[in-house]
Write a structure and sequence with these properties.
Blueprint: E1 7-10, E2 15-20, E3 37-40, E4 45-50, E5 60-69, H1 80-90, E6 95-99, E7 104-109, H2 113-122, E8 126-128
Parallel strand pairs: 1-8
Antiparallel strand pairs: 1-5, 2-4, 2-5, 3-4, 5-7, 6-7
Length: 129
C-alpha cells in the first residue's frame, strides 16, 4: 500500500480575489463566510472571500476554488507549498496560495480544479470532496 503524503479538502464554494485601495476600510461583505482572508500592505487591501458576496463594482478575479491542506501543520515542515505548486505548475495550473498559522490553502481556478485534483492524487495526495 502506498502511503499518502498529505490530505487536502476541497471547499465547496467559489471564491474571489479582490483588490481595494490601500486606505479603504475592511468591508462587511468580505466577512460573510466561513473562509475569508484579508491582507493590507502599503500598496493595497487584498481580500479573498466567497464570490457571491462581492459587489459588482469591486475589482476582483472570480471563479477560484480552494484546496485546504488538512492541518495543523508544524512550522518545521519544509517544502509543502513548493511540492504542491511544482506538481500543479508541471500541469500548467496557476495557483494563489494563502498560509495561516495552522495550514495552507491553495486557490485554483475552477476550470482547472479537476485536473489539479487528479494530478495531486497521482502524486499520492489524498483529496476529500
Amino acid at each position: 500500500m502506498v502511503e499518502k503524503i498529505l490530505t487536502m479538502k476541497l471547499l465547496k464554494e467559489k471564491y474571489g480575489v479582490c483588490r481595494l485601495g490601500k486606505t479603504q476600510l475592511i468591508p462587511e461583505w468580505a466577512q460573510n463566510s466561513d473562509f475569508f482572508s484579508i491582507t493590507r500592505t502599503s500598496d493595497e487591501l487584498s481580500i479573498v472571500c466567497i464570490e457571491e458576496s462581492i459587489p459588482d463594482n469591486v475589482k476582483c478575479e472570480k471563479d477560484w476554488r480552494i484546496l485546504k491542506i488538512e492541518g495543523p501543520l508544524d512550522f518545521s515542515l519544509i517544502g509543502i507549498l513548493a511540492s504542491v505548486s511544482k506538481i500543479l505548475a508541471q500541469k500548467g495550473i496557476s495557483i494563489f496560495a494563502i498560509s495561516t498559522y495552522d495550514t495552507d490553502y491553495i486557490l485554483v481556478k475552477n476550470k482547472d480544479i479537476d485536473n489539479a485534483i487528479q494530478s495531486l492524487i497521482k502524486e499520492r495526495y489524498e483529496v476529500i470532496y
